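[09:14] KT: can someone run the structure on this one? pasting the chain below
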Amino acid sequence: MARSDSHRDTLSLADIPACDAGWGAISAFALTYDGYAAAGDKACAEIANARRHDSLADLRTCLFLEQRRWHHFGDDPDEPAMAYLRELVEQIRARVAAGETR
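[09:31] RB: done, structure tokens below
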């Protein structure tokens, strides 16, 4: 699995999928951040399972782990999961629009 550097300097609005993006685009975006490298395996799971959304890093960690979860399921996310994934993407967009880029 190819992932981009989890410590990329900045995230721009152009990097974020559209609000109505499908699973393919959201999945690819999720993998531009390595939550395991950024937070550590255990903390990554704790952040995602608690659905902690306190920072841009938390949001990206949640999105990353959801991508990994659905990849391991071997299936595309169901509708409730897609709603949550799109919510994460929109919260990421809002933080980046407000100037938070890391």
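[09:33] KT: thanks! The radius of gyration is 12 Å.
[09:34] RB: yep, looked fine to me
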